[in-house]
Structures are given as C-alpha cells and as structure tokens.
C-alpha cells in the first residue's frame, strides 16, 4: 500500500493533482534549489563578492545541469538535510573546480530550502488562482441562470426551508472568491526570500549581506523580509493553507458544474 493516495498507482486518480503535482516532485525541489543557488551566485558576482566570471558560470550551470534526486538520498539521510549533497553534486557536475568553489557562498541549507519552497508555492498559487477564477466564472453564470430555480434546502439530511439552486451555487463560490481576493496580500506577506547564513546572523555573507538578500529577492521576484526568519514557519504555512484549500475546493466545484 502506498504511503499517500497521491503517490498510489491504484488510487492516485481519485484526487488528481494535474499540473500542480509536478511542482512537488523531488525533481522540482532540486530544480528550485538550483535556481536559488544560481541566482545567488549571479547577485554576488555583480556585487564583487565572488569573481563575476565564476558567478556567470555557476548561474548558467544552475539552469543546465541535471541532478538525479535519487543520487542525493544517501548523503541526505546522513546529514538530515538535502542541500550539502546537492551542493556537492552541483559542484561536481560543473566540472570546473575553479568556478565551482564559489557555489553556495555564504548561505545555510535552510536558506536554499526555504527560498526554493517559496518559488514552488508561488507557482502553485498562480496555477490555483487561474483555476479558481475559471471556476468562479462558471459558478457566477450558473448562479444568475438559476437565481429563481426553486429547491428545498436541507438540514440533518432532511428538507428544510425553500431556497434556490442559484443561491446554493453563490454560497459555494463565496469562500473561493474570498481566497482569491486575499491572494495579493498573502503573496506580499509570505513569499519571502531567505538568506541569513548559519545561525541566522548573516556573518558568512559578509558586510554586503542585507544588500545581497535584497538583490536576491529582486532576482527571484520574491519579497525581502529585511531580517532572518529561520525560526518562523508562519510564512510557509500561511501560503500553504490557501493552496490546499483551493486544491480541495476546485475538484468539487468542477464536478458539480
């Protein structure tokens, strides 16, 4: 039996994840972390923190190299986190030690993991927003069409007071509409870059650490929290909850329509 219905060959299509599912594979996680490593190197090269020629090489390599997640499993199990194994594999794949030595210059594992997570959450929210808006359009059209189509409301599985099919559809759509309306504020408050180095002090990043963090946020189109948030899990949870909520609501709505 599979550990999760989503990874089950037998039951997986009961709750299809569609395009969004690909953002939460091992390969997608590795790709997102490589994007962070490459963007960081490019920013540090522009600031003169690392040689620009090496920064450009690392950035280009982060877009081109292919790393098998399965090859990182043993070292990840030993370290407890995946980034050390990823950095080792990334440096080896570049086949240019004179440049590869500058990869992962100053960040800690959590910086790379959390920032990569935010990149995938942003893509997930965008995909779910598009689906939600399509669903709301369909619900609104049907709610107007059936505004006066009578039906019996139910409570405790029994007939209650009269209502209309349009009113029921409008009520189904309201939570989705609320979630969509809250997305801009949610993105501003939760989709942050993480770059604070070991212990969250930024000491390994040098005197330009705040500017490096701000530039990395700009390069990745994420927010700059202006501080370390290593001990906070709120941003990830705040972005993840509406993602799950929309994922649960959308299949129900589509099935109804």
Question: How would you concisely characterize the structure shown here?
Answer:
Helices cover 62% and strands 5% of the residues. The chain has helices at 18-21, 26-47, 52-64, 73-79, 83-94, 97-100, 109-145, 165-190, 209-220, 234-256, and strands at 150-155, 158-164. It has a two-stranded antiparallel ribbon.
Keywords:
two-stranded antiparallel ribbon, Fumarase C, Chain B, domain 1, disordered C terminus, 257 residues, 62% helix, 2 strands, mainly alpha, Fumarase C, Chain A, domain 2
Describe the structure.
The protein folds into 2 domains: 18-105, Orthogonal Bundle (Fumarase C, Chain B, domain 1); 108-257, Fumarase C, Chain A, domain 2, CATH 1.20.200. The two termini are 33 Å apart. 62% of the residues lie in helices and 5% in strands. Strands 1-2 form a two-stranded antiparallel sheet. Strand 1 and strand 2 (158-164) form a beta hairpin. It has helices spanning 18-21, 26-47, 52-64, 73-79, 83-94, 97-100, 109-145, 165-190, 209-220, 234-256, and strands at residues 150-155, 158-164. The chain has 257 residues and is mainly alpha-helical.
